[in-house]
Amino acid sequence: MEKKFQRILYGGDYNPNQWPKEIWDEDMRIFKNAHINSATINVFSWAKIQPSEEEYNFAQLDEIVDMLSEENYDIVLATSTAALPAWMVKKYPEVARTDYEGRHHKFGQRHNACANSLVYQKYAATLAGKLAERYGDNERIVCWHINNEYGGDCYCEKCEKAFRVWLKKKYKTLEALNKAWNLEFWGHTVHEWDEIVLPNALSEGLFDDNTAFAGISIDYRRFNSDSMLDNYKMERDAIRRFDKETVITTNLMGTYKGLDYFKWAKEMDIVSWDNYPSYDTTWSFTAMNHDLMRGLKNAPFMLMEQTPSQQNWQKYNSLKRPGQMRAQSYQTVAHGADTIQFFQLRRSAGACEKFHGAVIEHVGTENTRVFREVQQLGMELENLGDATLGSVNESEVGIVFDWDNYWALEYTSGPSVDLTYVKHIHQYYKFFYDKNIGVDMIPFDADFSKYKVVVAPVLYMVKEGMREALEEFTANGGALITTYMSGIVDQSDNVHLGGYPGPLRELAGVWVEEIDALAPEQSNEVIFDDGTKAKCGLVCDLMHLEGAESLAKYGSDFYKGMPAATKNKYGNGVTYYIGTDIEEEGLNKILEMAVESADVNPVISEKSELEITCRKADNHSFYFVMNFTDKDLQVPSSLAGNMDMLTGETVKEEEILSKYDVKLILVDN
Ligand code: GLA
Ligand code: ZN
Asked: What is the CATH code for 611-668?
């Protein structure tokens, strides 16, 4: 168990630089009153700190750092490199990005730098280094926050050149590259490295954001992710020259598509992320995001941002209902967070985030519902002290999440445009969530042997080594669950020839001959051996048994009677192959079989509609019990008699939790 911090950081983005100094004292007083102990500063101040190419001015930042240090705040110090200063774009237009349509951008917005601009790289790294040199030995600084929400992409000529270099390193020869991208197709063979262009609307763009060569686009995604990661590493290394110890992070965005976060996490000391569910995001989806962020390093993470009340950038920015922010915060801790931080501490007066919630609202006083809720949570977290820090979530189930697969599945042209990656992963996650079965979100090269069940939905791309790893896992007694659109292509998006699901064929004991695609208004049904039926659609695999047994068959169409879901003994284990998108009840029937045969245990044995997770410390366990339903629900009786750490009271038999109520129950191991 490793504690990265001394206490749960409670605070968030704080931009006193946007306010007159008279307000700062008032801020300090109000934060103390809210039991806020941390502030994230300097996220967007590049133009202030470096007003021109030659000039650096840290006067105001010095004052802010001093003020917060004197008041004993834990400071998260950002490097400010996520929005270009105007002078830089004016003097060096190359630092701005060129978009998918090929338009070169002017000054404006944020997250706007070309990752392959040497000018940007030089000034970003210099700034990070100067900040570390100046503030690195301040003990109140507990974390470095590099840039902000890295994302987006660039299609400029510098990126094109850098792409060629990246490709040369990967493929060594043009022959290998032509083969990997299957460039004989449409006669796209290249004979010189500089014939390679970036895949955008001006080149390989098809419809939507698809391209004629998914293989090129997937490599571009990898390259773009690596380019930004290099930016991150450059700043990190600049900081490390002056500060050897303080943890370094950058704030991620859950299932954000653009960056391969598993690769990123290897370079980060701790994962942090920004959680912005919208009014219709399900709690299971948010839980999955947390588990993914924990899974990146298989370790506790930071919640770098959430809004105390409302967002501005979604279509409909509903208020968080009374108790909702508190419940959301505990759900975050329940899944592995060691910090709770807000965006932001004082609501901005102008520009596009003036309708974004904050701890201090426009009225400027503590006399608000939002403040009172922040204050209550602050008190509770303060009382928890460092108890939960570093404690671990243990899971018997692993769900594979893989950015290469994310890209490949969504780039591929056919069989259905509705084959989106995250939605399908969540469909499977939800089954376990509803049963309070802990899940780790794992990379394709995880140590599968830790798990009783491994779920790999839409494992479209099976990369080198994966077949062997999954076969070993299953042969040793594991239960593998995989689905339609699995085992189809290799790492370059070329089909594993010889029949679907390619490398998984033996493991699944089936051969998929054809894949039908059903429009949203079309459906088929699956019929289980016991006669129960469930609707299915999206895609239907037409498969033949090659050792597997059928669990359910199609109910109509010309493939009526063919197997739709199967089970195959493999060594000491078993593979479940689900050949079509089955509605929840039917899908759950199959997942239920898998869970039962693999003897998977929920966090507590009693069934409950409450969300319950467990984090383990050395001598005790923390059970987080949360009600996200509209009903009053009873706390499982096996938890009664233990202490609720949030109230200090003993949990009674038949204790009732209403919507958004939370208990954090301490149980000795
Ligand atoms: C992101 C950014 C913040 C802020 C919030 C608003 O997460 O990191 O700077 O813009 O969104 O929700
Ligand atoms: Zn570029």
From this structure: 2.60.40.1180
